[in-house]
Write a structure and sequence with these properties.
With 223 residues, the protein is α/β, with parallel strands linked by helices. It contains 6 helices and 12 strands. Strands 4, 5, 6, 7, 8, 9, 10, 11 and 12 form a 9-stranded mixed beta sheet that branches. A hairpin with a 4-residue loop joins strand 1 and strand 2. The longest helix has 16 residues. The protein is elongated and about 55 Å long. It starts with a strand and ends with a helix.
């Protein structure tokens, strides 16, 4: 997510969450209740596009998935999101499904692969598509994919139709009686989420930007 702020009425424009806005929207209104003179407009883009926009100064802040964050960001800016698998509730995964103590479930990717379960992948240029392929790097023969060029939303929709297993972010998953979600392995798989700005100097960030950043961090720390 990203936004621009103007100090007359603290108008905030493109506030960008990569496909996470549906769950963040209630927190946006919480922010507006606390700071009624601040208006936020949320836009969606893939993290790769968000990085381009933030580097050009077109956004005041962006929330991006960034696996290689250590190259440029400081740890204090890092949140985490879990990468999960989703499938129709009646889809036969033909492998052992394990349970966590909290009732959530997990599966080994190798087990799905051995069962010849079809996957639905996002393009390799996207963060989710790149991550999914990295998980299969040490698995052979090559994974069976019925589509390798879907947006995350389309992949989940196809999985809901029972066509295969899709990857998604935990923060992007919505309550759906037709879908079941699974962690990848008992240790799970995570990707860093970074709040990124055109500048790393806090002296050049609008106060409303920093206040909103704190709310976002609190939101993801609760998940």
């Amino acid at each position: 997510m990203g936004y621009r702020a103007r100090l007359d009425n603290l108008y905030i424009e493109p506030f960008q969450l990569p496909k996470r806005d549906s769950q963040f929207v209630p927190h946006r209104y919480l922010f507006n209740n606390r700071y009624p003179n601040v208006d936020i407009v949320i836009h969606e883009h893939d993290s790769v596009i968000l990085e381009e926009l933030i580097s050009k100064g077109k956004l005041d802040m962006a929330l991006i998935a960034k696996p290689d964050h250590r190259k440029e960001m400081t740890p204090k800016s890092i949140l985490e999101d879990e990468v999960i698998l989703v499938a129709h509730k009646d889809f036969d995964l033909n492998c052992e499904i394990h349970n966590f103590d909290n009732g959530n479930q997990w599966i080994e990717l190798e087990s799905l692969h051995k069962a010849k379960i079809p996957f639905i992948l996002s393009p390799p240029r996207t963060i989710l598509g790149k991550l999914a392929r990295s998980y299969f790097r040490d698995i052979s023969p090559p994974v069976m994919a019925i589509n390798q060029n879907c947006s995350a939303e389309m992949a989940v929709a196809l999985a809901e139709e029972g066509l295969g297993v899709a990857f998604n972010y935990r923060s992007c998953s919505r309550a759906n009686s037709n879908l079941k979600s699974y962690s990848i392995g008992s240790s799970k798989r995570f990707v860093p989420l970074l709040l990124k700005y055109p500048t790393d100097n806090d002296d050049y960030k609008c106060r409303s930007t920093l206040l909103l950043a704190e709310l976002i961090k609190a939101y993801f720390e609760q998940k």
